[in-house]
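Lab channel / #folding
Pinned by the channel admin:
"Please post every new chain as: sequence first, then the structure tokens as a reply. Keep commentary short and put observations after the output so the thread stays searchable."

First post following the new format, from NK:
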Amino acid sequence: MTSPRPAIWTFFYGTIMDPVVMKDFGVTATEVRPAKLPGFDLVIRPRPNLVRSDRAVVFGSLMAVTHDDLTFIYSGLEKNFGIKYVPEAVLATTRDGFVLPALCYMVPKLPDAAPDPAFVKQLAQCVRSMGHPEWYAAHVESLSAPLKTDR
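Reply from TO:
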């Protein structure tokens, strides 16, 4: 007899922060809590990623999912986009002020590529659907601007 795999808290900051979008990926979280992750900033090049910043905060959600779910999600992203996300331990804060340890998947070195405006728009909609601040949704929308290059 095998016991069910335990669910672990994971902080999601891309479109899969929305449980409806997560279900489209074939994963149903056992718990979902809107949350924020201080000390990081969101970049989109062309996929979302986090970079350390002591002046920023990223909004998303904490979801209780299994390791099998995480393997499914992130192996699919690697297969479809050629980008390998790796887990890092973080401390995320829920909307009601609880600080929870969680995994968060990030790319150590994301290529410089322009974001897809349609993806950015979808991500901003997810931010709004989670009830995060409007200023943060506007920040996400501002990330669709083309990358500036030095000459």
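NK: The CA atoms of residues 35 and 95 lie 5 Å apart.
TO: also worth noting, The chain has four helices and five strands.
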